[in-house]
Design brief:
The protein has six helices and nine strands, in the order βααβββββααββαβα. With 228 residues, the chain is of the alpha+beta class. It folds into two domains: 90 residues, 3-Layer(bba) Sandwich (FAD/NAD(P)-binding domain); 107 residues, Polyamine Oxidase, Chain A, domain 2 (Alpha-Beta Complex), CATH 3.90.660.
């Protein structure tokens, strides 16, 4: 494959795996900038119910937070035809992940992701904790699906700047990590809005404008703030 430019819209984990054997790996500032970002592990557990049991508590949608290992519960609307509804449990702290790994045992961070279908014992514990959080008997879901963002090409669900990292210096450097080499890096990991889609879009837009010298799209103000 021949190209005049390459744009690497990659998370830290994928970029670190790609770099060895390329000119990127030979640049000390690039290796240092990789270490300026850390990955955030995260599980999402989707739970489908025959009815939105949270409505009896006056909850239509939104989110509840707790110091229990489930950490948070998101409520989504019910299907107008069937009445079935969806909720999501999401957790990311080391303590919570350690507990759920005792059910999932996915191995070290670079291992394959946990199975998409959570074990029955895990669902029993999640249901118990949802009951404690809401103070009611929560029914068992008729369907559940798990997403483990730690394995495979992801390495984590989102990113954070490491303590002491000078993000305002790293972000523009990553847009062209090697002087004279038309390789550009962008994405949520290398933005001022880590953990948000907007961060990825801002980072990509800066590459398009600063490196590829493209004009701002008609629907976007030319002076819209896109970060450093």
């Amino acid at each position: 494959v021949a190209a005049r430019r390459a744009v690497l819209a990659l998370p830290r984990h994928g970029l670190a795996r790609l770099a060895p054997g390329t000119p990127l790996a030979e640049v000390e500032s690039f290796r240092t900038d990789l270490d300026a970002v850390t990955t955030v592990p995260l599980f999402h557990l989707l739970l489908a119910y025959e009815r939105p049991w949270w409505e009896q508590l006056g909850i239509a949608d939104g989110r509840s937070a707790t110091d229990l290992p489930i950490q948070s519960c998101f409520y989504f609307g019910a299907d107008p035809d069937t009445g079935r509804a969806l909720a999501m449990v999401g957790y990311s702290s080391a303590e919570a992940i350690e507990l759920w790994d005792s059910y999932l045992r996915p191995g070290p961070p670079d291992a394959e992701p946990a199975p998409a279908e959570p074990p029955a014992e895990m669902l029993v514990e999640v249901t118990r904790q949802l009951g404690l959080l809401h103070g009611i008997d929560v029914p068992a879901p008729y369907w559940a699906q798990l997403m483990d963002w730690r394995g495979g090409e992801f390495g984590g669900a989102s990113h954070r700047w490491a303590v002491g990292a000078r993000s305002w210096e790293v972000i523009p450097r990553m847009r062209r990590p090697v002087d004279g080499l038309p390789v550009h890096v962008c994405g949520e990991a290398w933005s001022g809005l880590q953990g948000w889609n907007e961060g990825a879009l801002r980072s990509a837009e800066r590459v398009l404008r600063d490196e590829l010298e493209l004009p701002a799209p008609e629907w976007m103000s030319a002076d819209a703030y896109l970060g450093p």
